[in-house]
Structure to design on (1311 residues):
């Protein structure tokens, strides 16, 4: 089943010929981290996320003033109302953090940002602009799983990242390594077909799966035979290849062995979610089911979900179900149907929160160790380009949901960090460094530095210590 | 006394001659033979004994060191003893035999522990210069040269061409597909980003490559099958559902857009048309066709049998088309598809070497000079057995180098979308590509720059653009291409030319004609009433304007933002011709005009409407190249200077290291991991002063002495490549005036600039010594034999895909002689290298 590029674009680093991709190591029996798996879910949206819509309306005047002046402060969310659009996740308020004040000027900003928001560098369409693995892949490698990482996307139909088929498997918003884009599933249908092929009840899918298995077996045999004929350093040039094919076969076997659990958690999707012309909101709901199925079955521990991008033409939005909403126009203040641009932005965000509520609620229903799956999960909701439609990266708001065993001490708070350029200001790089450090990757700093902050002689490396 | 103690200990150890001394790690037994122990005892333990432990290293108790650390120590020792850095110069030296004895013993211990030996390490690019330069060119080495029999992973460019081969694309289609690649094919092979030769024969395909190849193979196979389905009458829309991916090969055979072609997938089509299982002959024909397309050879008996088995098994389950599809995929997944095979299938000689077979030779030559397989003449020569001797190799290489059309193309197709490909195309892109990699200026794309510091002029690479460094790289490519094409005194010219290309977007003749036409308009109209009544003047001189300015497009009132009218054009002419300059051939208001980078060459800014008097008059040179002041060769080209700079400062260390390694064939060790390589901040000190503070300690200077004095001479250029006479002390405490416009630069206090440096390592006392600045240093470098030979060593690595060994001495000496006797022809170097025994023999 693992024959499509979405799953299998792994490291092609020319300098490390003898290294296996981490999931290959897993398959080959290298030790993985013990105890319950850690799960991370990255949900990002296009068209910016306004800092002003993140603020609890019940702040007292002193805090309101601080907020307006963008001065650092923090309050307990339990003592406050959430902004109205966050009402779908109100039940999870004690596990929620609204994080404001991060900046991301070292990213490509403006309309589209490609891998920037996850990689913290300036990315564009050119593969050469991908400098290193995005942070979600860093986590995927820390918490290995059979599939390592899954990316789902509601691709834009114009502009932006994908120029291909919004129902296909296309270059996504994550990166596996330098110059290696990840590939994302564009529709629930293609994701279901590809990810769950080994347990498909469809006869032709079963045949395809069997044929692909045979090709792998054939190639493994021919390359192993070839490797046996050569020696010395030349041997590695073939043996590595042969061994990696064997590793893939072993991984497939492992997934086959998991077939009961995968089958038990198969996404239950009505026919309407499996068409090619489904509405954007149905696409999101369908993807959410896929996301849950892959996490709950243990096929992966890290999922990245592009809920929309600037070039996504929204359909199915509540109140304007029949409109085809061009998010770019919304960014320029245009309304559709009965809703003005602000209403549409609010409706879109509310829809995102409903999706997130479903993810969290479902994970809370699945027992794990002495609690439930969400205990070991963190979910991040954030814009792919910063604070607004034509963003500059001066702010990069986040909503974070942390399970009981999360490694950061931030749950249940509204946090505004010092503003850009102020003493103590933090960047997207600091934020990801904090997360990576907290979960056991000792990296000194993740991401590119901000040259303007460098010019101001601000220390911008390392984690946000107060979160740990 | 210390020595005596360690000697005693060592003596005690040696008494257990040939016996195994077990340390803490039972698996790491180590035996020190008597004679080796005696050498260690005599020359090493005085400093590296129990008491002294210089550098925390001991040789008196190897067995007591934990295995990993011991193996690492042995690896380092082998390196240092081999390269003569140990024992230190001032100490007693062992004889050559004694040295070799220890080296051999260390190598055997390392092998025993599966650790990389020096022999392995010497194959790495970073060890290229470790082979003794003087010895290499001394003529005393008599060892017979050879290249190890090898699989050499294809370069990204060769991979692309191989995919085109499988899909049977003609040259026109290839040219169209090269810049952006194929929709469904991801190139799994990237070259490391470094200056210097990047494509070595060391890389092994791994799991990552396989995964990418798997998806590529599926797409390619689908595409071939789709093509046949379309030929058999199915509508394109049905066969290729993805609207963004409707391209298919061989359209030309079906009345599509591509050029005339004959149908090339017959043997595949037969299988798809048949409803019953195919015959063995039909299956074999399909297998042989895919082998020919993908691996450029027929399948042998064993392979044929094995593929027949696969196809039959698949056909039984999935039918004929699936059988075909899986066979197409499986052939593409053969590791051979991504390797160049050079094993030496020819006859062996008396020294255990085997010649490349004529067929292997045809590929080796073709891939050395281009990215495609051998042309028809090479194939014929190989088939007729005329690719055997040195003369044969020479004949073919010379023929291909004289061929001005077959290889012609852009130096880097990736630039084609943004820049007009015609003006960077060259008859032999691969030769230019060598110098491009050698100098490493394309790395300028990777150095992020703050726009404000450039006063709003620098465009950072972004969506669909390589920004300012992209333009500069293209201009550097042109300088290189011109010198390579002229093929006279190539190295000296590259290092010393003052002839540069800046903004050259029209060829010389067209550009000159345009500017002269504009001058005529200016001279004719300058004394008219054009300011007060432009419309009337335009009407009165309609024919003149029509001829020279904007045929049919001269607009009056109500013009669009990008349209030309008389007032606009005359204002520009007045600001340029009127002040003794010349305007650029593209007017400032033209849509998409992004030529703003002239100040990085210290030329006035491109005139921008409303700001014409901001700088000195712009004087565009329609005939290029032209002499640019304060510049001398590629090392003073803004692209190279930016590539070898930091984000917001120059980088004398990197610039110096480049010169040491690339031009002086020297080595500088990597930064030790214990060193936190930071240049301290200080508001009042120049970078030179701060660097001195950070590197003057003895342990730092040991390495930095090989870099700083070379790189500091380049302080005459800032990190955008601008020539300067004072250093701006860019520290928040030193701001004199804040920028008044968006993206404008703040001004800072400055300090007088010192651009002196010191050259050493040419081996020529008339050249080594203090230099006044980079230009002085470059003049000396250009005169150095060592520099010339260093470039030839790098060319060897580029064309042979490996580091030179001492046994390659003759190839290098011959190439050097060829260069000198031909008046500095790089082509002569290439011919010499590609017809050397190093090229022809495998072992």
């Amino acid at each position: 089943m693992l024959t499509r590029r979405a799953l299998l674009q792994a490291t092609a680093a020319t300098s490390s010929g003898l290294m296996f991709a981490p999931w290959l190591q897993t398959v080959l029996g290298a030790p993985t981290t013990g105890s319950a798996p850690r799960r991370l879910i990255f949900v990002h949206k296009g068209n910016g996320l306004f800092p002003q819509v993140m603020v609890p309306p019940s702040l007292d005047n002193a805090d309101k003033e601080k907020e307006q002046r963008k001065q650092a402060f923090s309050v307990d969310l339990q003592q406050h109302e959430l902004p109205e659009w966050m009402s779908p996740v109100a039940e999870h308020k004690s596990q929620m953090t609204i994080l404001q004040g991060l900046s991301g000027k070292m990213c490509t900003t403006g309309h589209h940002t490609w891998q920037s928001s996850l990689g913290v560098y300036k990315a564009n369409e050119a593969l050469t602009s991908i400098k290193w693995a995005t942070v979600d892949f860093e986590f995927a490698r820390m918490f290995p799983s059979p599939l390592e990482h899954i990316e789902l996307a509601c691709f834009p139909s114009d502009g932006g990242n994908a120029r291909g088929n919004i129902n296909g498997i296309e270059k996504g918003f994550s990166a596996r390594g330098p110059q290696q884009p990840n590939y994302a599933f564009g529709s629930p249908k293609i994701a279901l077909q590809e990810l769950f092929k080994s347990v498909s009840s469809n006869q032709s899918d079963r045949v395809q799966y069997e044929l692909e298995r045979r090709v792998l077996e054939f190639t493994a045999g021919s390359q192993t035979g070839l490797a046996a004929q050569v020696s010395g350093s030349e041997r590695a040039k073939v043996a590595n290849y042969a061994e990696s094919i064997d590793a893939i076969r072993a991984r497939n076997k492992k997934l086959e062995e998991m077939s009961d659990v995968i089958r038990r958690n198969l996404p239950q999707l009505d026919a309407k979610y499996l068409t090619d012309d489904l509405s954007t909101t149905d696409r999101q709901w369908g993807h959410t089911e896929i996301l849950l199925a892959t996490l709950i079955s243990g096929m992966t521990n890290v999922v990245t979900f592009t809920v929309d991008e600037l070039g996504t033409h929204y359909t199915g939005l509540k109140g304007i179900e029949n409109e085809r909403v061009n998010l770019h126009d919304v960014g320029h203040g245009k309304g559709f149907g009965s809703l003005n641009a602000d209403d549409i932005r609010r409706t879109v965000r509310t829809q995102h929160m409903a999706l997130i509520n479903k993810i969290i609620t479902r994970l809370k229903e699945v027992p794990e160790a002495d609690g439930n799956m969400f205990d070991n999960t963190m979910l991040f909701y954030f814009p792919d380009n910063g604070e607004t439609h034509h963003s500059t990266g001066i702010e990069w708001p986040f909503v974070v949901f942390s399970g009981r065993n999360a490694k950061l001490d931030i749950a249940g708070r509204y946090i505004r960090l010092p503003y850009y350029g102020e003493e103590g200001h933090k960047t997207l790089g600091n934020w990801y460094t904090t997360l990576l450090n907290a979960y056991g990757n000792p990296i000194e700093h993740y991401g590119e530095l901000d040259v303007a902050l460098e010019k101001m002689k601000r220390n911008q490396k390392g984690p946000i210590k107060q979160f740990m | 006394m210390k020595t005596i103690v360690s000697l005693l200990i060592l003596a005690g150890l040696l008494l257990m001659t040939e016996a195994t001394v077990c340390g803490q790690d039972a698996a790491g037994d180590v035996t020190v033979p008597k004679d080796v122990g005696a050498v260690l005892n005599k020359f090493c333990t005085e400093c590296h004994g129990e008491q002294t432990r210089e550098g925390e290293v001991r040789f008196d108790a190897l067995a007591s060191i934990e295995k990993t650390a011991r193996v690492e120590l042995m690896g380092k020792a082998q390196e240092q003893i081999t390269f003569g850095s140990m024992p230190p110069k001032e100490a007693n030296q062992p004889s050559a035999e004694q040295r070799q004895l220890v080296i051999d013993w260390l190598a055997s211990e390392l092998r025993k522990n599966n650790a990389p030996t020096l022999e392995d390490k010497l194959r790495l690019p970073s060890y290229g210069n470790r082979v003794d330069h003087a010895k290499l060119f001394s003529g005393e080495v008599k060892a017979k040269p050879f290249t190890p029999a090898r699989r050499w992973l294809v370069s990204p460019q060769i991979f692309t061409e191989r995919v085109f081969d499988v899909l049977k694309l003609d040259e026109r289609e290839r040219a169209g597909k090269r810049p952006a690649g194929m929709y469904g094919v991801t190139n799994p092979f990237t070259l490391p980003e470094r200056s210097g030769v990047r494509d070595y024969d060391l890389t092994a395909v791994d799991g990552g490559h396989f995964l990418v190849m798997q998806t590529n193979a599926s797409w390619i196979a689908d595409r071939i099958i789709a093509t046949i389905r379309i030929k058999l009458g199915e509508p394109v829309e049905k066969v290729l559902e993805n609207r963004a991916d409707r391209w298919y090969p061989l359209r030309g055979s079906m009345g599509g857009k591509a050029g005339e072609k004959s149908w090339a997938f017959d043997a595949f089509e037969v299988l798809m048309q048949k409803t019953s299982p195919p015959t063995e002959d039909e299956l074999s024909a399909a297998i042989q066709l895919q082998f020919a397309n993908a691996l450029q050879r027929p399948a042998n008996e064993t392979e044929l049998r094995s593929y027949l088995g696969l196809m039959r098994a698949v056909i039984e389950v999935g039918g004929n088309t699936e059988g075909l599809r899986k066979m197409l995929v499986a052939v593409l997944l053969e590791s051979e598809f991504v390797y160049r095979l050079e094993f030496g299938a020819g006859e062996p000689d008396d020294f255990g070497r085997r010649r490349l077979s004529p067929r292997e030779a045809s590929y080796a030559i073709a891939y050395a000079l281009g990215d495609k397989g051998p042309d028809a003449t090479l194939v014929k020569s190989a088939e007729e057995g005329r690719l055997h001797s040195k003369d044969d190799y020479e004949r073919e290489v010379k023929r291909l180098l004289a061929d001005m059309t077959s290889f012609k193309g852009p130096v880097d197709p990736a630039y084609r979308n943004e820049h007009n490909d015609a003006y960077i195309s060259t008859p032999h892109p691969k030769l230019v590509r060598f110098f491009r990699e050698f100098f490493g200026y394309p790395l300028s794309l990777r150095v992020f720059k703050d726009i404000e510091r450039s006063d709003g002029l620098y465009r950072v690479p972004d969506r669909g653009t390589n920004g300012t460094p992209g333009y500069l790289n293209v201009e550097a490519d042109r300088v290189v291409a011109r010198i390579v094409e002229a093929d006279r005194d190539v190295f000296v010219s590259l290092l010393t030319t003052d002839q540069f290309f800046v903004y050259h977007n029209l060829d010389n003749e067209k550009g000159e004609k345009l500017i002269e036409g504009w001058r005529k308009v200016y001279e004719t109209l300058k004394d008219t009433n054009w300011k007060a009544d432009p419309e009337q003047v335009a009407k009165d001189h309609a024919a003149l304007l029509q001829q020279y300015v904007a045929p049919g497009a001269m607009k009056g009132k109500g013009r669009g933002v990008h349209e030309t009218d008389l007032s606009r054009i005359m204002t520009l002419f007045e600001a340029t011709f009127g002040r003794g300059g010349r305007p650029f051939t593209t007017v400032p208001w033209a849509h998409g005009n992004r030529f703003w980078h002239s100040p990085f060459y210290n030329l006035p800014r491109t005139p921008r409407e409303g700001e014409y008097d901001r700088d000195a008059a712009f004087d565009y040179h329609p005939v290029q190249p032209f002499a640019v002041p304060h510049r001398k060769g590629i090392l003073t080209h803004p692209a190279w200077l930016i590539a070898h700079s930091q984000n917001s400062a120059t980088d004398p260390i990197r610039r110096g290291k480049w010169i040491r390694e690339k031009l002086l064939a020297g080595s500088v060790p990597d930064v030790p991991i214990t060193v936190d390589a930071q240049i301290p901040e200080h508001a009042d000190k120049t970078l030179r002063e701060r660097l001195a503070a950070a590197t003057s300690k003895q342990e730092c200077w040991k390495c930095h002495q090989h870099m700083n004095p070379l790189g500091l001479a380049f302080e005459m250029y800032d990190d955008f490549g601008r020539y300067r006479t004072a250093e701006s002390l860019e520290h928040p405490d030193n701001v004199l005036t804040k920028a008044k416009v968006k993206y404008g630069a703040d001004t800072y206090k400055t300090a007088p600039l010192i651009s002196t440096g010191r050259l050493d390592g040419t081996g020529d006392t008339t050249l080594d010594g203090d230099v006044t600045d980079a230009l002085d240093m470059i003049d000396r470098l250009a005169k150095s034999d060592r520099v010339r030979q260093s470039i030839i060593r790098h060319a060897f690595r580029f064309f042979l895909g490996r580091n030179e060994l001492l046994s390659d001495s003759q190839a290098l000496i011959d190439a050097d002689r060829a260069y000198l006797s031909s008046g500095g022809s790089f082509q002569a170097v290439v011919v010499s290298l590609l017809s050397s025994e190093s090229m022809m023999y495998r072992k």
Chain B touches chain A through 65 residues (CB under 8 Å). Residues 207-231 of chain B form the longest helix (25 residues). The CA atoms of residues 495 and 633 of chain B lie 4 Å apart.
